[in-house]
Amino acid sequence: MALYRLKEYYPNYSESTGDNRLDKIDSFSVYTEPGQEKVGSVKDLLVDESGRFRYVVVDTGPWIFGKTVLLPIGLANFDYNNERIYVNGLSKEQVENLPEYKDYKSIDEKYETNVRNQYQPIASQRSSRQFISRQDMPMQPLEDQSATLGSSSTAMQGLEQQRNTNVNAGANVNAGANVNAKAYDYDREPGFYGLSEEDNHGPLRLYEERLITHRNRFKAGEVSLGKHVETKAVQTDVPVERERVVIERRDVGSQPVAAADVDFRDQEIARVDVYGEEVNVEKQAVVREEVSLRKEKEQDTVHVQDQVRREELDVDTHGNPDILRQ
Question: Where residue 52 sits, what CATH number does that domain have?
Answer without folding.
Answer: 2.30.30.240
